[in-house]
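Entry 14: structure prediction run for Pseudouridine synthase. Input pasted below.
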Amino acid sequence: MKAVHLEDTPVDVKGVRLQKVIAQAGLASRRAAEEMIRQGRVAVNGRVVTTLGCCVDPGRDEVIVDGKTISIAEKKVYLLFYKPKLCVTTLKDPQGRQTVIDLIPDFGVRLFPVGRLDYDAEGLLLLTNDGLLGNRLQHPRYGIAKTYEVKVQGQPDAEALSRLRSGIVLEEGKTAPAEVSILRLLPKAGWLRIVLHQGWYRQIKRMGEAVGHPVLKIKRVAYGPLTLGKLMPGAFRTLSAKEVRRLYQLVQLEEEQTGRK
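Run finished. Output tokens:
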């Protein structure tokens, strides 16, 4: 991933000192790692860091030295979780609401959700401590497909469907083209299948409002090649090695790490 040099890169105050992470990866002594940082040879999540006060989360942040990603050996956990309604996709909630982490057993590592689902939405959520993969999966450059079953108020006509497919102008700009099809129609509502390749805040709800069909329910049924299958709300399973490899391939990590192009 190409790094962007920012003179005033924000300094984190939590986590592990960047130079310590580089030293623990076996690339250099801590003093030599400090010099690497000063020389602008180190980037965190695509942003060049030149201050020694920067701290990172080794399990979540992507650290790049001289154009190559480094990592600290840690047991990697990959969970496919069926997020139920009425829980938040954060590690902690200031309002004291239940979080997805509250519903997962302790695996001995710090797991975090990849992306988010609204408090009242349900469906597939990936949880991992593989920050390198998690960051790439969320990066708009890779456009990972996210598939939803969405119940909307009223019965969308051809014009509404066309607008959803071609893009809706929201506060951030125009949404990317989406795949939209009708699953079934009810007397006063309709179920749509929507595939997005981006993840703006409350995007589906705002798209529905924009075309005059407020969203009533959201269920994510697929994330890239992963599907819910027979999982029930609140249940989870670990990903197979094949599924993890497939995710790595989607975000071009396997090729970079093995030197293949």
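Notes: The domain at 146-223 is CATH 3.30.70.1560 (Alpha-Beta Plaits). Will compare against the previous run tomorrow.
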